[in-house]
Hints:
The structure holds two protein chains of two kinds. Chain A has two helices and no strands. Helix content of chain A is 65%, strand content 0%. By secondary structure, chain B is mainly α. Chain B has one domain: Butyryl-CoA Dehydrogenase, subunit A, domain 3, CATH 1.20.140.160. Helices cover 72% and strands 0% of the residues of chain B. Chain B is built from eight helices and no strands. Chain B has helices at residues 2-35, 43-58, 68-88, 92-95, 108-119, 124-131, 135-150, 158-167. The radius of gyration of chain B is 18 Å and the shape is elongated. Classes of the chains: A mainly alpha, B mainly alpha. Chain A binds chain B through residues 1, 6-7, 9-11, 13-22, 25-26, 28-37, 40, and chain B through 13, 16-17, 20-21, 24-25, 28-29, 32-33, 39-40, 42, 45-46, 49-51, 53-58, 60, 102-103, 114-115, 118-119, 145-147, 149-150.
Amino acid sequence: MNRLEREAAARRIMERVQPVPPPGLYEAAVRRGSRLLRRRTAVRRVLWLLLAVGVVVFAVWALTVQPWAQAPSETTPTFTDW
Amino acid sequence: MRERHASQGARRARDFESFVAGAGGRLLHTATLLTGEAPHDNPRARRLVTLALAHTYASWDRLRGEDPYDRAREYLATRFARGAWHHHGGLLSRTRPHPDSALADLGPHERLVLVLRLFEGIGEEQVSALLGMPQERVHALCDRATATVLHPPRRAARPVAEAGVAAS
């Protein structure tokens, strides 16, 4: 028996008995699939919301602290007696 | 806008229903071979197929011309591979194939490779990519599994092993 014949024989053994699909397979798949979709939408919504909150918090912080403004120099000692 | 959305949903439901009607039986056959259950008593295979179809339904709008059958089969195989790996140690009796299964003498990895290669007719290279397994290993597993299926070992010993499981 060569390789091809062996593979064909194994294929025939696997194809011998066909299981019958259960009734309601389509309904179950749609039910679970819709649940998956809803969950994905919810997760995406939460992530967008988190992003929006982050942007707002950052903007408020930046506007109040204004890290780009240079602080007035108060550290240099005055050179008076030398 | 809403009307278009609704008609799109109806079309998707129709398409998906005909897909399930056409591919459900074949997918269930594949899954039953993978789980090593008897063709008439296959709760694990049914669960696998339902999950795979649910995932296909969820990504139906994003298939972009890809074959939904390929998508479902891929999910089925990778999901089973993960399950097979987790159940591999311990709990042998849970994954032991039913004697009525065509692949009763094979381990989970041998079943997986044999079914994908020969029953589903996927190329060696693609199977190795799908399972993250070297191509030589796919080749060796497939050869060994084919030999075991054609010449089943210890035919006489199986009832004894089964009795042992039933007694424990």
